[in-house]
Amino acid sequence: MRKKLCSAAVCCLMLFLTACGLASQASVAALVERDVQALEALAGEIALAGAAGDAEYPGVDRISYDSRTGQVQFECGVSGFASQTSYNGFYYSPGDVPLSFGGTGDMTLAPSGAGWCWEETEGDNWYYTERLRSGWYYYEMHF
User: Fold this and answer.
1) What does the pLDDT look like over 53-98, one tens digit per residue?
2) What per-residue confidence (pLDDT) applies to 21?
3) Higher-confidence residue: 87 or 42?
C-alpha cells in the first residue's frame, strides 16, 4: 500500500511540474511590450532598494536582483525536475547589454541566431538570451 501511495505521489509531482512548464517566448515578449512602463518603474524601485525583497508582478513567478550588474530578473516559468530543470523569463539590463543567468559571471556569451548563448563545455547545461527591446531581454536557462 505504501509503495502505491509513493508512486502516486511521484506521478502527481511529475504532472504538476510538467503542467507548470515554461512560458512561451512570445507570451514573455508580449508581457514586456504590454507592461514596459510598469516594469521599468518596478525595476527602478528594486535597483534603488538594492534588493527585490518580496516584489511581485502578475505573470511572474519570482523576481531577483543582482547588485553587481544591476540586473533585475523576472522568472516566468520552470519545467523539469532535478538535473533536467529549465527556467525562462526576462530581465532588465541597465546597460542594455545581454547578461548571464542571474548575474552568473562565468558565462561567456556568444552570438547565436537572434541572440546570444552559452553552453557548458563538459556537460549539457545551456543558456540563451535575446533582446526584446531597449534594456529588456528574454532568457532560457537549462540545467
Assistant:
1) 999 999 999 999 999 999 999 999 888 776 678 889 999 999 999 9
2) 67
3) 42
Query: Pick from 59, 25, 26: which is nearest to 42 by CA?
Result: 59
Q: Please give the C-alpha separations between residue 52 and each of 49, 64, 95, 108, in angstroms, as whole numbers.
A: 8, 5, 19, 25
Taking the C-alpha atoms of residue 6 and residue 79, their distance in angstroms, rounded to an integer, is: 21
Q: What is the pLDDT of residues 22-41, one digit of tens each?
A: 788 999 999 999 999 999 99
Look up cell 552559452; give the residue.
118
* Rounded distance between C-alpha atoms, residue 139 and residue 119, angstroms: 14
d(CA 132, CA 115): 10
**Which residues lie below 8 Å from residue 136, measured CB to CB, with a gap of 6+?**
32, 36, 39, 90, 91, 92, 93
Count the neighbouring beta carbons within 10 Å of the beta carbon of residue 1.
Answer: 5
Can you tell me which residue has the cell 542571474?
102
Phi and psi torsions of 59, nearest 5°: 85, 0
Assigned C-alpha cell, 119: 553552453
Judge contact between 118 and 112, C-beta under 8 A. Answer: no
**Alpha-carbon torsion angle 54, 57, 58, 61, nearest 10:** -60
